[in-house]
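Troubleshooting: if your tokenizer reports a length mismatch, compare your output against this known-good record of 196 residues.
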Amino acid sequence: MIVIEWIKKIFQFIDNMFMKLEEFILSFAIILISIMIVGNVIAREVFSSGAFFFAYEVSKFAIVIATFMGIGYAARKGRHISMSAFYDFASFKIRKVMMIAINFITAIVMFMLAYFTYSLLMFEYSTGAITTALELPRYWMAIFLPLGFFLAGIQFLRNTIINFTAKAKDKVYLGIDAVDYNDTKDKDVKLEDLSV
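Known-good structure output:
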């Protein structure tokens, strides 16, 4: 029992560190996009300079990182886009089954996309192509595609598993720590909730 508890703590520590790394990468990518775009506009319009000739490539690189690394982070937090018209009106048991099926099928799709984008990465690597401004290998950008899809697949698989645990006995989990809003919100509208 003590060994199992230590293993759980080790995995929890690794998971927390990885989440912090994801948050840092995503924050850095968004800040970098902002700096590149604003810096390019200021350099071009105020100083009539082409000093930020690499802004497009760096911004494109950061957008790819933010997009594909963000898929797994959104899945972890249960913040991915969802069309929930039928889901919201369903009973608890139906919502539970739907969430398990949705997460499991999405995990399979993410792993398939990771496989296909890995093939794309290998193709980019084999061409030896470089970017025009910075002359960096183009496959560097493609690295984040299979990585992002693979991490998203793991998170969706974790979201599937957590809905089978005792922790989720009377709740539906959208993410590892994200309880379904249908299980947390107060269904009764109080007079103080209404704004005039």
